[in-house]
Amino acid sequence: DVAATAAHDGSILLWGTDTWEQTAVLNAGVRVNSIAMSSDGAKLVAACDSGRVRVWDIASKREADLNVDGSNDRVTCVVLLGDVRSVAGEEKRVPQYQVAAACADGRVCVWNLASAKMEGCYKVHGNSAVYSLCAMPDGGLASGGGDMAV
C-alpha cells in the first residue's frame, strides 16, 4: 500500500505503508494545495495553483492534466468520488471514479476520471473561493466557501 504527502513546492512524496520509507517523488511543477488517492491506490490527483488538476497513475508514474475551463485561478481542493463496481456479466471489478475540484473563483468542477471528460462545472459559492469538499456516503458532495456557506 502507498500513502502520499504534498508540499507547496510542488513535490508529492509517495511512502510505502509497510516500512514508511519514501518510494517515489512526483512533481506537479507548481504549488499543490490538496491531494487525494483512489481507494484502490491506483490514481493520485492534486489540486494546483495553476488552475489545473494533475492526475498520476501510481504504477507507471504517467501524468495528465484536467483543465478548469475559463480559469487560471487556483484549484484549492480535490476529492475522488466513486468506488469499484462490477462489470455487467463479469466477475471483474472495475474502478469508476469522478474527480471533483474546488476553485478559487467559486466553482466546483467534476470530471470522469477514466475519460478525463468534464461532466459539469457549477458556480456554488458566488464569487467566493471554494475551500473544502467532502464526499458524502450517499454519493453527494458538500462544499464550503469563503461566503461562509456549506
Automatic annotation (TrEMBL):
WD-type repeats, residues: 32-66
Coiled coil: none
Keywords: WD repeat
Gene3D superfamilies according to UniProt: YVTN repeat-like/Quinoprotein amine dehydrogenase (2.130.10.10)
Source species, domain of life: Eukaryota
SMART domains: WD40
One Pfam family per UniProt: WD40
Protein name: Guanine nucleotide-binding protein subunit beta-like protein
Species annotation: Chrysotila carterae (Marine alga)
